[in-house]
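[step 3/7] fold_predict: job queued, chain A
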Amino acid sequence: MSPHTIAVVDDAPEVRALLRTRLRLTGVLTVVAEGGTGYDAVAIAAEHRPDLMLLDASMPGLGGLDAIEQVREASPATRVVLYSGFSEEGLESRALELGAAAFVQKSDRVDEVVDALTALTGEAPEPPSGGDARAPGPDAPRGEEQILGEHVERFRAVFDQAAIGMGTLTLTGQIVRANAALVRLLDATAESAVGLALLDAVPAADRDAVTFALATAVQESVARVEHRLAGTERLVTSTIAAVRDSQQRPLYLLLQSQDVTAQRTTERALVESEERFRLLVESVTDYAIFMLDPEGRIASWNRGAERLKGYTADEILGQHFRTFYTDAARASRHPESELAAATRDGRYQEEGWRVRKDGTLFWANVVLTALRDARGDLVGFAKVTRDVTAQRRASLDLERSASELADANSDLSAANVRLGAAAEERAHVLAITAHELRSPIAVVGGAASTLARHWAQLEDAKRADLLASVASSAEQMRRMLHELLLAARLDAGAVRSARDVVRVRPVLEDAVARSRAAEPGAGDVEVDCADDLELLTDAEQLCQVATNYLTNAARYGAAPVVVRAGVEEGRLQVLVEDRGPGVPDGVVGHLFDEMFLRGGSRRGTGLGLYIVQRLAHALGGEAWYERDDGLTRFGVTLPLGR
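[step 4/7] structure written:
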């Protein structure tokens, strides 16, 4: 009986030594070559063409599974036997599928491996010749049970039942055993998972990272890598650990994989949400929004803060927020008291003067909020500041108008005492005035309230419209107040007329401008007056007469409107004519009476024509009205005074 040849390829030298000795003792098998990697196996097959080759499943460089086909190509007659400590049935099937003649599982007893190999030759081993044939040879460095026991898979029971994906890999990353969780994660079957290279389960973009993790695990015992799974958007965190023998040589790799798709999606959503919030805060320009540390030093700065306060982030970060307060506020430690109030109550709000970088003041609405962590410890403050100077100015204007109206009412009351016969008329004047003031007061109050409460929700254009309506209504109230005061002073004889040489045309042009401001929607007005026409009179009172006539024409007349001035029969005649319907015949005789429009359709106080008549008298002239050839004319005739 001539011995059959065999090559033993295992990366553990002591295992090879033990098997070499025991196989020689059988008298059936002769070890003709040994190797420690799959590459060695291919070279041995090509050179020695042994009858059998025992291949370890897990070896560095090229594992046994990957080497089977290459060995068969190099030596087709060689029967390859794959052996491993892994007990997964799928591994045996995969080995046979790749061309192995048999699969042998590593055991605590070397006899079982030797018996399986000799059985493949079809010959019985020689009987022992003295001593224990099963005792290890002199070149076996350690007891067989200890050596092979280190190469038997550990923890089999918990492996299959683990909730996370677990697998055992060859040192080159081929799956030789997979639990149910890993099979589900790979979207594979138990059979197709065995023999699958981990690199084939990940997309090309992630393969370098996984390759590096495999190499790191072999060299340094453990590595972690996050990667996707091929063909999906699923994210997996894989931990790869090397299982080593007593000589600290890697035997195989343990893979633990966990699906972190939901976790990463949540984390990404949180990061995106935080980024959107950061961008929102940074892009806000109407509000100064910034953070303070617990001591009040500025920790963040948005564009609104830079625009409102004038400091760039580089200039102000790290500075104490007392920088924005007046000297008096700093001296009284008001900023520190704000921090104390916010710390105590959670939130502090006030309005007051603040100082810009250039030293100018603005009226600010300030909200300071204390920020605490999950344990309740103070970590800082959030501060929101907005400029409400315009709203405060509108409110003060309203208060001032109310005060002026009260003063006017007082003046009117005094005039009523002096003119007892006109007491009833004055009461009616006040009633009409109060009625007419309701609309502009309502506009001012409503606009100011809307701006104060909803400033942040309003677009810039809407804020501008509301502020314009406040200004317009305030102007309307000022005009009405002026008319009331002028009428009261005229009645009381308190109006005195100056006597200056006045060029008439500039006075009329000024009146056109004033009437256009009072009635913005009015059309153009033609001025017909010689440039050199002069008059000895009071320029302001003459302008008031023309302004009242032009305003009346804009409200009740029709274009075209012309203001004319010229000398007629030695007297100056100023008139305003338009194409309007004129005045009903029944009221012509009362046009210049005080409040002649009471009860009718009117705008303003109704004192305009009454004031014209009184001013005309004060200037030594007379006011008049006529309707002729489709034209409505309101005029005043004055002495030239020269």
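[step 5/7] annotate
Confidence is low (pLDDT under 50) at residues 130-142, 151-155, 596-602.
The chain is about 45% helix and 20% strand.
exit 0
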